[in-house]
Amino acid sequence: MSIGSLTLRPLDPLKDAELLHSWVTHPKAAYWMMQDAALQDVEREYLRIAAHEHHDAYLGLHDGVPAFLMEKYDPRYVELAGLYDPEPGDVGMHFLVAPTDRPIHGFTRAVITAVMEELFADPRTRRVVVEPDVSNKAVHALNEAVGFVPVREIDKPEKRALLSFCTRAQFSAARGVAV
């Protein structure tokens, strides 16, 4: 069964803020840690990301309709600076699937797969790095399904996180694709 078309476009912090606000304050987005954010807080956060030379945000579209958020960052400067020894070609990633009243079976896995394909489309990307909350078992299972290997727990200012890596070869192997 086909999920449909998943594409990405650069996030517009002002035009997309109201939509993002509805997503990040939804109870299903608890691990995004913006539950109490006001619309202006969301605008400010994504304007900050847009202005940062080492952090980018993208709106994910499902058949042309906004359905998920992806952030990519350079872990040498954002999120993980000083918390691990980065390697050349490391790219950090966050993703959030929009809440829906009509879930599609396999959609979230299709989204993380599309996100990983986008990141590895850049030949400079050698390894994707994630740092989800240690208690977010659902995302750990998704990460494992696309090839992530947990390395260790780390303490970030806002959470205890599970540092995990996925190389291009691990992603290909998880998908059953020869490198």
From TrEMBL:
Enumerate the spans annotated as Acyltransferase MbtK/IucB-like conserved domain.
Answer: 9-56
Q: Which InterPro entries match?
A: Acyl_CoA_acyltransferase, Acyltransferase_MbtK/IucB-like
UniProt cross-references to Pfam families, sorted A to Z? Acetyltransf_8
Q: Which SUPFAM superfamilies match?
A: Acyl-CoA N-acyltransferases (Nat) (SSF55729)
Instruction: Write down the Gene3D superfamilies for this protein, in alphabetical order.
Output: 3.40.630.30
Q: What's this protein's function? A: Acyltransferase required for the direct transfer of medium- to long-chain fatty acyl moieties from a carrier protein (MbtL) on to the epsilon-amino group of lysine residue in the mycobactin core.
* Protein name according to UniProt: Lysine N-acyltransferase MbtK
Which organism is the protein's source? Streptomyces djakartensis
